[in-house]
Design brief:
The chain is an alpha+beta fold. The chain is about 65% helix and about 20% strand. The two termini are about 25 Å apart.
Amino acid sequence: MKITVSEALRLKNEISNTVSKLNSETYRAPLGITKEAEVVVSNASDAVKFTEGVSRLEKALSYSEEINSKIALFNREHKIDDKVRSMHNNKLLMSVYENALPRTKATKTNKFENLGNGVRQTISVEYIPTITSVDVKSKISHYKTKYRTTQNEIEILNQGTLELSFSYEDVEALLSAE
């Protein structure tokens, strides 16, 4: 089956959920026959649930290995990890400048200091920024553009295709066999 990388990432999550459910099923499955007061309460057909569950789990795990391997290979070939890191770095730098923006405005305030004996002194406090809001806004715009550009590159690359040996239906069939 040929699917896009975006679809493969969604399918990878579905497979992960399937593995989790099948794993849980194998923990609950009986391994033999249960008798209560010499009366059979679970029979041999119940006991095969474990082996069938493990068989489906093995298949799901093989799908998981295949899709993870194909995605990892695609990511290496297209340097997706580097692009994602760059995108997050640009987002971080953009937020640093967004946080700095309010501190680019000059302010004047007064504070009061008690000198003792009921004497208070007024101290004039003036803040003069050394970086202008124009400079900071320019940096925000720069990092936002770099972030969006890299994000678009990744989205375009994720429209590339991967070839898998199984289909959505194969994954869904693993759970419907319960």
